[in-house]
Design a protein that fits this description.
Elements lengths: L1 H19 L4 H11 L4 H24 L9 H28 L6 H22 L11 H18 L5 H11 L3 H26 L7 H24 L2 H26 L2
Helix pairs in contact: 1-2, 1-3, 1-9, 2-3, 2-10, 3-8, 3-9, 4-6, 4-8, 5-10, 6-8, 7-8
């Protein structure tokens, strides 16, 4: 039964994540924490692996598809480089918080609280975004710094990148939904590579069953492929509605996790 739950959660989350550009981990991590199937540290690591596989195949499919916008490789490289630096920093912060807590499960409450604040802000922005004047940031130093911040959040929370990527891309770079989703997946890919590489180099990999990892990665790959196909058929307005619905669900799950891991 546990494997059935893992398959459903990882596949559906990766598919929806590829459609909206939120990586899937923002759903996988809190849902697995809520079920208690995996330890918090194990869930963070395996969620990161799943998001990495999903982002790779999703980006590959998107790069081979014609879009209404031009993919700016220079911009993508600069912000992804920031994501790498942020990914390593976020992993260091995560390990620091983990070391300060006597009960490692309490890190789940910390992650849920941070994610709750971010998701709530994201939801409010998405609802009001038509009334918010966006910017057109062009300086490479600022773009790099924004990548660093996104990478830190991605790595610390073990969610890949999540909704905050989209809001940042909407506001600072005036992107449309599908365009932001593609760049978001690009950032997620590199920040997760950095985060997981840091974990492997330091030897801080939590205990896990190899079959569970293989299962989650496969679900991430097939979910990413399915989501990329669906994304091509959906209008921006439909993607926005799906995104708003997901944020509401994630907020509820994180409220539950804060209560669950605080006691």
């Amino acid at each position: 039964m546990e494997y059935v739950v893992i398959i459903l959660v990882c596949f559906l989350s990766s598919a929806v994540g590829a459609v909206c550009g939120i990586g899937g981990g923002v759903i996988i991590k809190p849902v697995l924490d809520a079920t208690g199937i995996l330890a918090v540290t194990t869930g963070s690591f395996l969620s990161g692996c799943t998001v990495l596989s999903m982002s790779f195949v999703s980006l590959y499919k998107n790069m081979r598809t014609k879009h209404d916008f031009i993919f700016d490789h220079v911009f993508a490289t600069v912000i992804a480089a920031g994501g790498v630096a942020g990914g390593l920093t976020g992993k260091w912060m995560y390990e620091g918080v983990l070391g300060m807590l006597s009960d490692t499960s309490h890190v789940g409450a910390v992650q849920a609280a941070v994610l709750l604040v971010i998701t709530s802000g994201t939801l409010l922005y998405t609802i009001k975004k038509e009334k918010i004047k966006t910017r057109h940031v062009a300086g490479k130093a600022v773009i790099f710094l924004i990548g660093v911040i996104l990478g830190i959040l991605s790595s610390f929370l073990g969610i890949g990148g999540g909704p905050v990527n989209l809001v940042v891309l909407f506001y600072f770079f005036s992107m449309e939904t599908k365009q932001a989703a593609m760049y978001s997946i690009y950032i997620i890919l590199f920040s997760q590579i950095a985060s997981l590489s840091g974990t492997l180099v330091k030897g801080n990999v939590p205990p896990f069953e190899p079959f569970t990892l293989l299962l989650m990665i496969c679900c991430g790959i097939f979910g990413g492929l399915a989501g990329s196909r669906i994304n091509k058929e959906m209008e921006d307005a439909t993607v926005d509605r799906l995104f708003i619905g997901l944020m509401a669900v994630i907020i509820a799950i994180n409220l539950f996790n804060i209560f669950r891991y605080s006691w």
